[in-house]
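FAQ: What does the model actually see?

It sees only this:
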Amino acid sequence: MINHGIDQGVVDGILRSAERYFDQPLAAKTAMDASNSPLWRGYISTAAGFHTCKPGTAAGLDHKESFTIGAEVRVCVYYLLLVFCIFRTWLRCWLALHPPLSTNENGEPAQSSLADCSSNSES
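And it is asked to produce this:
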């Protein structure tokens, strides 16, 4: 790949770092095993059997190891989804307990709504 705009010194440094990482003993590499990541980021060994078209079989097995990188965003997305669901549930409950007042054409509360509220508060 050429003309990508990344300084060659940076590219060379990344390649040297990758070589140093993969030259480590297996125990050091598996400390960053991809199975510990919610999005499968990290080290994948040749023994894991994931570098194949037929997982769980020796047929077509690639004899390579890899390291997958990327942002661990799933946790953040799930957190935001959870907050949204809680808010949506709260809003539905609140609206069920506090129905909106009817308004007249000027956007002011209609008289019948005010009367309904005052009669409800006395009971």
